[in-house]
Design brief:
With 314 residues, the protein is α/β, with parallel strands linked by helices. Helix content is 27%, strand content 29%. It has helices at 22-27, 44-53, 72-80, 116-129, 141-147, 217-226, 260-272, 298-312; strands spanning 12-16, 37-41, 58-65, 69-70, 85-93, 96-100, 111-114, 134-137, 156-160, 170-174, 183-190, 202-209, 232-239, 247-254, 276-283. Strands 1, 2, 3, 4, 5 and 11 form a 6-stranded mixed sheet that branches.
Length: 314
């Protein structure tokens, strides 16, 4: 059953489906999405295309995993599709189960169907519990479980916890992820230009290109944040693709664009870089209050501007 059968009213939201995915669990955390139409899509590009076309008001997509790092497909899509904004982030614990067709025992499992990322996160358990197993890559975690009901190639599959509520499979083992604290971070992406109000617990996401490939260029970019007391929680390089050696940087900075220190850093970046993509300022999912030195309080920046205005006679 497709998740779009749950509801019939607009507006709509898109997510990587089908029902039972971690992305669906993330979308379930959005109060505004309750009771609305949910479009199940096959990939990040399709989800964002729904937003661009207006088919959906927003799309939920994975952007970072605490074990595997940034989701490059999402980062690259956000870099290349204009006029999109992140309006919220959501955290989902990564919990996997080994499932099989009804009547199958763990001793009978030789071939495991799994998404490559899920397989990597469960490999230690698999090598200990099924040391001579083979692996068939799957396009998604849910598709791995669904495939068991469509063919006999694999004996079992790695799937999200709770998948048995959606498919007629038997759980052979639960909690099989090697890192029990693994979490995936999701973001809700829209076309809106309206910024959520600052909460004191915010994050600002950017994509920044270096002006040229030379010694010290990356340091100069980082100094735009450091000299204003803005901490970075993520910085990851991605090739731009137009020529060898050219990179863009995906950045998450602590704070909101309406915070004076963050706004000043944005101005510095804009002067420094040939291309800065502002992806949004939004509340942090972990609700942790952003800490910074009193030297970078809003009043320090406004007083400095007032001092300069007095000198200039403005």
């Amino acid at each position: 059953m497709g998740s779009s059968e749950k509801v019939t009213t607009a507006p709509a939201y898109s997510y990587l489906g089908p029902a039972g995915t971690f992305t669906e669990a993330a979308l379930a955390q959005v109060p505004e999405a309750a009771g609305k139409t949910w479009h199940s899509v096959n990939n990040v590009g399709e989800a964002l295309a729904d937003v661009v076309s207006g088919r959906s008001v927003a799309a939920m997509i994975a952007i970072e995993n605490s074990v595997e790092g940034g989701v490059t497909a999402t980062q690259d899509a956000l870099a290349n599709i204009p006029n999109l904004r992140i309006i919220g982030e959501y955290l989902v614990p990564v919990e996997f189960e080994l499932v099989a067709r009804k009547g199958t025992t763990l001793a009978e499992v030789n071939i495991v169907n799994a998404h490559p990322v899920a397989y990597a996160q469960c490999r230690g358990w698999l090598e200990k519990s099924i040391p001579h197993h083979g692996h068939i890559p799957s396009s998604s975690n849910v598709a791995a479980a669904a495939s068991l009901l469509e063919n006999d190639t694999a004996d079992a599959a790695i799937a999200p916890a709770g998948i048995a509520r959606h498919y007629d499979v038997e759980v052979l083992a639960s909690g099989i992820a090697d890192n029990p604290n693994a979490v995936t971070r999701f973001v809700l992406v829209s076309k809106t230009k309206e910024l959520p109000a600052p909460t004191g617990s915010d994050k600002t996401s950017l994509i920044v290109e270096l002006p040229d490939d030379r010694s010290g260029a990356l340091l100069e970019m980082l100094e735009q944040f450091a000299t204003r007391g803005v901490n970075l929680s993520l910085i990851q390089s991605r090739p731009i693709g137009d020529e060898f050696g050219r990179y863009r940087f995906v950045i998450d900075a602590e704070g909101h664009a309406r915070d004076e220190r963050v706004a000043d850093a944005l101005l510095g970046l804009r002067r420094f870089s040939p291309k800065v993509i502002f992806l949004g300022s939004y509340p942090r999912a972990d609700k942790v209050t952003t800490e910074h030195s009193k030297r970078y309080a809003d009043g320090i920046f406004t007083d400095a501007r007032a001092w300069l205005a007095e000198i200039l006679g403005d």
